[in-house]
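user: can you give me the structure for this one chain? tokens are fine.
assistant: on it. calling the predictor now.
[tool input]
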Amino acid sequence: MPQAETKAPAFSVVIPALNEAESIAGLLQRIDAALEGRSYEIIVVDDGSEDDTGAQVQAGPAHWRLLSHDARGGQSAAIHSGVAAARAPLIVTLDADGQNPPEEIPKLLAAWEARAADPALGLIAGQRVKRQDTLAKRWASRAANTIRSAALKDGTRDTGCGLKIFRKDVFLELPFFNHMHRYLPALVARAGYEVGHVDVAHAHREAGASKYTNLQRALVGAVDLLGVMWLLRRRKAARATEITRADREETKS
């Protein structure tokens, strides 16, 4: 069972949601089943839904938390709001449409725990295998990933996968902009942290409708890519290390 409300959980699962009333309760129940025995909370960020998405979350147990945007802000804004409100130092994200199987979350956690002692680790990104999307969507995604990878050299095959695990403090260091969630590996590396990868499964959407078209992704992605390239070229190159009096005395001796 999740940790008691008075005690901070080990990790927070953050889910941006828009008009997912048909599937959100079932998704959260699957997350609970996949994470049984662990210490966690689930934060659903309702990004201006026009259906009962929020009501479905509020009808659940106490560790299902609901945040609601007063105006539609987009997926990156929803993730940012959820991370900022999280009570845990470690964040897991996935999409609300059910195409990121929650049964894959333990795989991400295992990969993180294997490197938990490494302070340089900032993010482990899921990379989808055997995509369950239309052929047109797979082609568009493949083209976008090829262009992005060549331009940013972020070492990531698939940045569109919602399944990710990262440190809250690292995420909040990153520059916020709309659609930033698609560039997290490059942004985390820009901040000086290491990025790991885990192959994860992908599922068909069983309810609701996609919030993007291939044309929308292409047009927005072209502008965002130029912006991220600009950010990478202007990253802070120096890191400060505190020098104590003891350090100075040791240098003198």
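assistant: here you go. The chain has nine helices and seven strands. Residues 11-252 form a domain with the Spore Coat Polysaccharide Biosynthesis Protein SpsA; Chain A fold (CATH 3.90.550.10).
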